[in-house]
Write a structure and sequence with these properties.
mainly alpha, DNA damage checkpoint protein LCD1
């Protein structure tokens, strides 16, 4: 029985083993193995329940199965995590690779450009070295004495061309002979613009403009990208501008280079200006860079580019109008004498004033360049309603009598009026131009009604006194009747150097030279230099030139709108007559006999004023009106008498010693200047020619006579006589005129 039972047990084990899957299946498919093991285990448990040995085996198999399932689950989770990490690494690697490729391409382009520039520079240096090493041989400069006595064989030689015999070159010339380089390579205009920008400095500042921009950055703007120009946060503005220029100048011609560069700068300035968190420290220097670009080659700035530039500058000025709205603070009135509290930091106010000053210069230069356009281009700007409306808002803001004048902007506005009137004179004879539509209601520059308010503003400027001392407008000496320069705006512009430029040193104080920055350094008002009133003939000369520009604008108005009573009227005549009388009184009571270089300028101002009065008197007498003539009659007659009485008898005897004494008293500075210029003739003449000596002497004597007695040219004296003798108004009767001339000895 025992043998039978053991055989039965062996048979059952054989059956179980035969039911198991092969090893390869277990290795390749753990799930299938686990399922089959579970089924076989269940069958074995059912068949061998009575046997305790089988129960132990089943428990062992179940434990193994549970362990296998746990390991399988853990492996599945690990595989899932590994797959996720692998996908994430792939994405990160792809992004990194893309960025690396782009940066590599940019660096490659930059290095190629640098290498090309170095190669060009190497070529120039090699050619320069060859030029310096080249020594002219004596054979090329001297004649061979033996060859002079040899007779050429005419049977074997071609006919000789007769040549002029050369003299032996002096020895001192031989040592200074420089051979010309026939293989000179002219640089491209884009390269010249690049070099001009790289070396440009603001007046009175020791570092270049790009060196200032090198230490400036943006903090609150992630990316500025336009036309191959890319600027990220915390990157140097100057460095990125260099990269753009290096790429652009090699592939763009000059006009396209200028257009693209200006567009990028406008985009960058707009981004900075309209971000309330971003500092405006870089804006004035970017505007100065735009000005340098357009004046480099004005003919390369196209019409559309100019129009867009003018609109941008006008919008920028109007956006920062608060800088121009400074109160008058007239404390001369005891009722208004209040203590005004102000912050003692100056850096932000300084940046704002630089922005406005440079913006007005950019606007004026843009309009000057527009004068180079064809008549069609000029007409397109003059009838542009946006430009007309923007300029109207700007001059109303700049020449307002209710705020403290920004003197730099006043000069710009007067120059702009002069430029616009010159444009009108240029296009008025062109009949091919299409007139503007009638629905503009006289709001365009080409309409006479647009000029009514500008002329009123110019009349107010003519009424101001021009002094020959430099007056800083502090709180205690405000005077609205005179031109004054604000102590906190004593900075030269991009066009004019008005004033002493005492704040130029503080431009460098705004920045750190050794690190990137976004905010300016602190500048205290206590550190600003305080200047007292003092003689300043240069400042006086600038103010006289301002009044001359106003008179030029009036003259253009007479040419463009000769029949427009809105422009040509008694108001203009009255203001000109008052100016004539005022300048006559000033020059006779104050300036005659002074050693002042501006005496001649004042005389020329009187002559220009008299010319306009004469034109109004002769051509527009009916438009003036008797009421205006009666208003200024006494002042006009007195001024005209002084012009007529200034004539001298040039036949009166005078000695050279007398005139030399007079010049030493009233015109010594001019005499020294002329004598210094006369030294230029010493290189051309061994002895000064007699005719040059006489011309210089006559020039000095004539100027001295004009200063001492305010002598006017003959044509202006005839104008004054004509007005006084005119029967249109009866300023003087015939008897009065005869008595006047008899008293004058004429």
């Amino acid at each position: 029985m025992s043998g039978l039972s053991s055989d039965d047990e062996d048979d059952e084990l054989i059956l179980q083993l035969s039911a198991l899957p092969p090893k390869t299946t277990l290795q390749d498919a753990p799930k299938k193995y686990a399922t089959q093991v579970q089924n076989n285990t269940d069958q074995a448990v059912q068949q061998s329940k009575p046997n305790p040995t089988d129960n132990d085996r089943v428990l062992e198999l179940e434990m193994k199965l549970t362990k296998a399932r746990g390991e399988t689950s853990m492996l599945r989770d690990k595989i899932s995590l590994l797959n996720k990490e692998r996908e994430k690494d792939k994405l990160n690697h792809a992004d990194t690779d893309s960025q690396a490729k782009q940066e590599h391409e940019r660096e490659l382009k930059y290095m190629k450009q640098v290498i090309q520039n170095l190669k060009d520079e190497k070529k120039f240096l090699l050619m320069e070295m060859k030029t310096k090493k080249a020594v002219p041989t004596s054979a090329s400069l001297q004649t061979n004495p033996q060859a002079q006595h040899q007779t050429p064989d005419t049977s074997t030689l071609t006919p000789l061309v007769k040549k002029r015999k050369l003299e032996d070159t002096p020895q001192y010339l031989k040592s200074n002979v420089v051979s010309l380089n026939s293989h000179r390579i002219l640089p491209r205009e884009s390269d010249l613009l690049f070099n001009s920008i790289m070396s440009f400095k603001l007046f009175g500042v020791d570092v270049t403009l790009l060196e200032i921009l090198d230490v400036l950055t943006v903090k609150h703007i992630d990316t500025v990208e336009a036309n191959d120009f890319i600027l990220h946060s915390n990157e140097s503005i100057g460095k990125q501008l260099r990269r753009f220029m290096m790429v652009a100048k090699s592939k763009l011609n000059l006009d396209k280079f200028i257009d693209t560069f200006l567009e990028n700068l406008v985009f960058l300035i707009t981004k900075i200006s309209y971000n309330s968190q971003e500092s405006k420290l870089a804006v004035p220097f970017l505007i100065a860079l735009m000005h340098q670009i357009i004046i480099f080659r004005p003919s390369a700035v196209k019409q559309l580019c100019l129009q867009n530039l003018l609109l941008f500058v006008c919008d920028f000025i109007l956006e920062n109008r608060r800088v121009l709205r400074q109160p008058l603070r007239n404390v001369n009135d005891p009722e208004l004498k209040l203590k005004i509290l102000e912050p003692q930091v100056f850096q932000y106010e300084f940046i704002d004033k630089l922005m406005i000053c440079y913006s007005f210069d950019l606007l004026e230069s843009g309009l000057r360049i527009a004068q180079l356009l064809t008549n069609d281009g000029l007409w397109a700007i003059l009838i542009d309603s946006k430009i007309s409306n923007s300029l109207t808002a700007i001059y109303n803001l700049s020449l307002s009598v209710s705020v403290r004048p920004f003197l730099n902007a006043v000069f710009n506005i007067v120059a702009i009026f002069n430029i616009l009137s010159n444009m009108l004179v240029t296009v008025q004879q062109d009949s091919t131009l299409i007139p503007p539509s009638k629905d503009t209601n006289g709001s365009l520059i080409v309409h006479g009604s647009w000029w009514k308010l500008p002329l009123d503003k110019l009349y107010n400027l003519l009424e101001k006194d021009v002094k020959n001392y430099y007056l800083m407008s502090h709180l205690d000496n405000m005077d609205s009747r005179s031109f004054e320069k604000n102590h906190f705006v004593d900075i030269n512009g991009l066009i004019r150097n008005i004033g002493n430029n005492s704040l130029a040193a503080f431009v460098e104080e705004l920045i750190h030279t050794d690190k990137l920055q976004n905010f300016p350094r602190v500048i205290s008002k206590e550190n600003l230099p305080i200047q007292k009133a003092h003689l300043d003939f240069e400042f006086e000369g600038w103010l006289l030139s301002l009044q001359k520009d106003i008179l030029l604008t009036f003259n253009n108005m007479l040419l463009v709108f000769p029949e427009d009573s809105v422009i040509i009227n008694g108001n203009m005549f009255a203001h000109l007559a008052r100016l004539l009388a005022q300048e006559q009184q000033e020059i006779l009571s104050t300036y005659l006999g002074q050693d002042n270089p501006n005496i001649i300028s004042r005389v020329e101002l009187i002559e220009s004023t008299l010319t306009l009065i004469y034109k109004l008197w002769m051509n527009h007498h009916q438009t003036i009106g008797q009421e205006y003539i009666k208003e200024v009659e006494n002042e006009l007659i007195t001024a005209l008498r002084r012009v007529v009485a200034s004539q001298m008898d040039e036949k009166l005897p005078r000695t050279n010693d007398d005139m030399a004494d007079h010049r030493n008293i009233v015109d010594k500075l001019n005499e020294l200047t002329v004598r210094d210029q006369a030294r230029y003739y010493e290189d051309a003449f061994e002895d000064m020619p007699e005719y040059i000596t006489k011309e210089l002497s006559d020039h000095l004597d004539g100027r001295c006579y004009r200063i001492m007695q305010a002598r006017y040219q003959k044509v202006y004296q005839e104008m004054a006589k004509t007005i006084l003798e005119s029967h249109k108004t009866g300023l003087l009767t015939v008897e009065q005129a005869d008595a006047l001339y008899a008293a004058m000895g004429l």
